[in-house]
Amino acid sequence: MAETSNNSGHRALRFALTLLALIALAALITVLLARNGQRQQETDIQLRNKSTIDLIVRTLRSEMGEVRGDTLVLAQPPIVTRMLAAPDDATRTRVDKLLAALARIRGNYAQVRLIDAGGREVARVDRSGAAITVVPVGQLQDKHHRPYVEATSQLEAGQVYVSRLDLNIEHGQIQHPLLPTLRLATPVFGADGRRLGMVVINLDGRRMLASIAHDAQLASGAIWLVDREGDWLVGPDLSRDWRFMVPGQARAGLATDLPAVWDAVRSRDNGQMRGAFGLLSFDRVMLGEHSDPGRPLPQLRVLALAPRAGLAAILLDRSHLLVYAVLLPILLLLAGWVSYLLARLARARGEIAGNSRLLQDIFEHSSLSMKVKDLQGRILRANGAAARLLGRDVGQLIGQPIDVVATEETAALVHAHDHEVIEGNRVSNYEEQVAYLGGAYTLLTTRFPVTDERGRVVGVGAVSLDITERNHMEEWLRLAKNQAEAANRAKSTFLASMSHELRTPLNSIIGLGELLFEQVEENPGNPLSKESLRRIVGAGRHLLALINDILDIAKVEAGHIDLRPEPLLARSLIESVFATLKPLAVANGDELLLDVRGEPGILDVDALRMRQILINLVGNAIKFTRDGRVTLRVDREDDMLRIAVSDTGIGMTQEQLTRIFEPFEQADRSISRTHGGSGLGLAISRQLAELMGGRIDVASAPGQGSVFTLVLPVNTPAQRASGPATSGASGASSLPRRAVALVVDDDADARDLLRSLLERDGVHVITAASGAEALVLARRERPAVMVLDILLGDMSGWDVLTVLRADPDHADLPVILCTITDPDHRTVSLGVIEHLTKPIDRDQLKKLVRRFVGTEQPVEVLVVDDDDVYREQMALALRHEGHRVRMASSGELALQQMRQQAPDLLLLDLVMPGIDGLAVIATMRDERALAEIPVVLITAADVPLATIEQLYNRAILLVRKDASDLAGVARRVGCLFAQLGATGAAGRDPDA
Amino acid sequence: MILYVEDDADNAFMLVQRLHRHGMAVRHVEDGEQALLAVARDRPDAILLDVNLPGADGLTVLRRLRDDAATRDLPVVIVSASVQDAALSKAMQAGADAFVAKPIDFDRLLQTLARLLADKPGAGGDC
After folding, report:
1. For residues A54 and A122, what is the distance between their CA atoms, to the nearest angstrom?
2. pLDDT tens string A141-168
3. What is the pLDDT of residues A13-63, one digit of tens each?
């Protein structure tokens, strides 16, 4: 804003100054022209006035000559002489006639007379207007005292007296109207030379003055007439004319009124001059050679005085107005244009200066090296960056060839490149390795021809970027990248080959171990060798697990793990982990507790990996806790599922805590010897948890035990089972019920009592603390039986029942009702199976629940496995759990045994020589007596269970063949039996 | 008769012993060339083929077998200590019928062999 106003201010000022200058110039020119015009005009005036004066003077002279001639002529005739000498009447008459004729002819003679020697008039003619009067003798006067008579009396013949021009005086008074008069007289001599008298003519000056006035019209300015003394005869002011004639009045004339003019005029006969007074032209007329004695000869001066025309007057001449009217806008336009041009010029100049400064600054301060060289390679200009590269100050470089600061090789290179650019007259880029005094560099140089204004190449410019560092950096990065890639490749190759190299001998060890074991079994010798072999095989398998873990973590770290998430009931997964590890806990003397608070909901996770994490966390807790307690606490927090595994084990220091998630780190290196494990489990688990979008936290202190918490995002349970199902969903009722009992009680103590009571009996229990939760769990978990307290916090057990029975899916859910009151009619209408009155008879409850849920009732199990070790171990574990066990070492034997006596449960190895597990199942399918026997398939391989179930049209449970899991399987046999029994029943065809 | 192609003497010794114990006739050779010769001469019922062999490796042998009309349908089980997915898929692409990782789950190997031999046209019938 300020900038703009400043600019416009400048512009206005510039415009004004330009305009003033132009106006001044125009005025000067005008004044000069005017002055010239003035001079011209003055010259014109003077010329004209001179002509006018000449004309007047000529007229005056001519008139004077005429009068003079008349005077002289009149003195000649004899009659005049006679009249003066001896007048008689006849003579007088003739003389009077003569005088009258002359007066008549001339018209401007006021009087013509003859005066005798005595000074008396002898004849006289007067003229008054047009009338000529011959004055009678009696009226003739004596004039001898008159000065002109006296003066004339002194003259010789032929001489003429001329008076000054004055006013006629009659009887002592100035005659009015004023009569300017001039007297001319000449003596008259007789034949004998005697002076007889004189002729006198009074000239009436009015005609002369009128003539002058007439001629004066030709002149510019005023025509004045003064006499010899300068007194006004015809002057600027009528009242001041003829003042000298008036007695008692001061004289008035040039001397008094215009002394400057008078000074200029008095000493000269004629001339022209300019002065402050104006333009003056003047001339004089001598009236005669003789005049009054003692007085200068009379003369008349004629002056023309034109005022000098003022310049202002000329400039303001009306005729100029149009010129001004045209000139002024032109001047304005001109001023505008000029000031615009000036402004543009100034701006352009400013821009050029600015650009030049900018270029100079760029040149000076650029970090790019810049040089200009002439055709001979001498440096003309160089900036600071160039000087630094070259290793000399700029001042030392100017005028020098590059050779003084470069190695020979570099100089040759630079010259060659310069030469190319000059020859080719084009811009080129070079990457150059150069060595200057300043050091060795890799430069990226742009060379360009420098041309003069006519486009001729006069030199070469070079702009260089020092890419030495960058090249080093690039080189370094490239090496680092290569190294990293090589290291990565090496790592992958190493892992692959390590895996390969380890596996190959391990193959022999395990294989031969198993072979020996088989042989020792067939020919029992030293029991110690058998145990040794068992340990060899076990160690080999441990080594294999270790290798698998190492590959696993390598995969996770390389991001090569693909998670396959699928919707999964968190509770069932957790419970399965719990069941799997329970035997290990027992073996370690630990109490393993499961505490599920609320409904953990549905997870969308990779079940295998989730299980891996939980097994690792819980397994660790058990491993590091001896004769203590491991608690698996599950709770929901909004969208997060929190599974905390806490133990009462040895705990860890802060320093150990920082390392435990590192691969191959265990809190104590001696631990792997005492506790086993690869030390990779936590590292894998944490990475997997993070891949799943969750995390694993840990809190611990030495001796205080540890808490590992897995936090995972939970899919908000879409209300899959909420709300009564419609009648159209009848197909849902065919869904198998799970072998669990749902205990519903709002009193936590009562709930825990019931739970522990049933769990001790091998019943799988889930609990609900409210009616709403009970409904949700009933729908979601599909328990085999519900134990329902009638007094709940949010609604009564009756309400729960009513809602439940309205849902066809749960219309047949067996419900055991616990009340403190006696049963009423509603128990029948709402399909209550049994009614228990508090305090509850525990045995009765257990018996009721067992009707619907599998328990640890002794079960007869047929274990079918060709692996003698496994078979024996399993049998041992099962017997330990109180089951009856039979064994078969092949499919054929198993079928034979079953046909003799059907077992409650078949534990079937999948892979066997001869008739394998699948063949056994297939055969059982076709034999009515065997079709109902529940089958638990034991396999080391990943078998698509769904496919098997589909193929053989029966429910089968799959248990992974795992030496460490034997006891777990054995412990779960009761549950498995119940589970399969229930599902088998659900899927059974009623007609079969 | 089963042909076992294996360059590791311990591995070969172990597996041959175990297979013999299960009543199977096994012939062992140490490299690819011998393997191809043995196939032509002995006409085995199935081949257990290690991948990492001196000279022509297992996959090369496998491809040659698949290129020959006479051996196109011969059951081949790749037995390898290279257990990466890539190794597996290479073997399958080369035309292997099954893949068994080392250390060998012997039961699984037996099962696999049983399946392959049972599927073999003309091999079964009286079982």
Report:
1. 39
2. 888 888 889 889 888 888 999 988 888 8
3. 877 888 788 888 878 887 888 788 878 888 888 888 888 889 999 888 888
How far CA A120 is from CA of A84, A113, A115, in Å, comes to 10, 10, 5
Q: What number of other Cβ atoms are within 10 A of residue A323's Cβ?
A: 11
d(CA A74, CA A98): 9
Of A745, A737, A722, which Cα lies nearest the Cα of A816?
Answer: A745
> Among partner residues B18, B80, B108, which is closest to A940 by beta-carbon distance?
B108
Domain boundaries in chain B?
Answer: 1-5+32-82+91-118
User: Measured between alpha carbons, how far is A301 from A56 in angstroms, rounded to an integer?
Assistant: 10
Mean pLDDT computed over every residue of chain B: 85
- What value, to the nearest 5°, has the Cα angle with vertex A351 and ends A350 and A354? 85
Smallest CA–CA distance from B110 into chain A, residue: A913
C-alpha span between A399 and B59 (Å, rounded)? 75
Residue of A288, A127, A310 lying closest to A204 (CA atoms): A127
Residue in B125, B121, B120, B127 with CA at minimum distance from that of residue B46: B120
**Cα A953 off chain centre by:** 74
**Average pLDDT, stretch A304-333?**
76
Q: Which residues of A touch B18 (CB under 8 A)?
A: 511, 514-515
By Cβ distance, the residue of B11, B22, B84 closest to A507 is B11
Question: What is the C-alpha separation between A871 and A877, in angstroms, rounded?
Answer: 10
Top CATH class of B1-5+32-82+91-118 equals: alpha beta
- Identify which has the larger pLDDT, A2 or A636: A636
pLDDT (tens digit per residue) in A247-274: 888 888 888 888 888 888 888 888 888 8
- Measured CA to CA, the distance from residue A321 to residue A315 in angstroms comes to 9
pLDDT of residue A721: 35
A 10 A CB-CB count for B56 gives 16
The SS3 assignment for A111 reads: strand
Q: Mind listing the pLDDT tens digit for each residue in A696-731?
A: 999 988 888 899 999 988 754 333 333 333 333 333
Nearest to A124 by CA among A149, A100, A105, A107: A100
- Asked if B114 lies within 8 A of A916 by C-beta distance, the reply is yes
Question: B44 with B75: CB under 8 angstroms?
Answer: no
Q: How far apart are CA A247 and CA B32, in angstroms?
A: 176
Structure ipTM: 0.78
Q: Which residue would you say has higher pLDDT here, A967 or A359? A: A359
Within 8 A of B102 by CB-CB distance, chain A residues are 503-504, 506-507
Interface with B, mutate which of A508, A871, A889, A942 (most B CBs under 10 A): A508
Q: Which two tokens stand for residue A849?
A: 């629940």
Is any Cβ of chain A less than 8 angstroms from the Cβ of B15? yes
Q: Where are the beta strands (DSSP E) in A891-967?
A: 905-909, 935-939, 956-960
| Three-state secondary structure of chain B | CEEEECCCHHHHHHHHHHHHHCCCCEEEECCHHHHHHHHHHHCCCEEEEECCCCCCCHHHHHHHHHHCHHHCCCCEEEEECCCCHHHHHHHHHHCCCEEEECCCCHHHHHHHHHHHHHHCCCCCCCC
Confidence label for A447 from pLDDT (cuts 50, 70 and 90): very high
Contact check, Cβ <8 Å, A540/B103? yes
Predicted local distance difference test score (pLDDT) of residue A448 = 92
Where do the DSSP E strands lie in A228-367? Answer: 232-234, 271-275, 278-286, 299-306
Q: Do the Cβ atoms of A646 and A697 come closer than 8 Å?
A: no
Burial of A409 (0-12, 13-18, 19+ CB in 10 A): exposed
Q: Helix, strand, coil % (nearest 5) of chain A?
A: 50, 25, 25
Residue type, A250: A
Phi-psi region for residue A107, left (φ > 0), alpha (ψ -120 to 50) or beta?
A: left
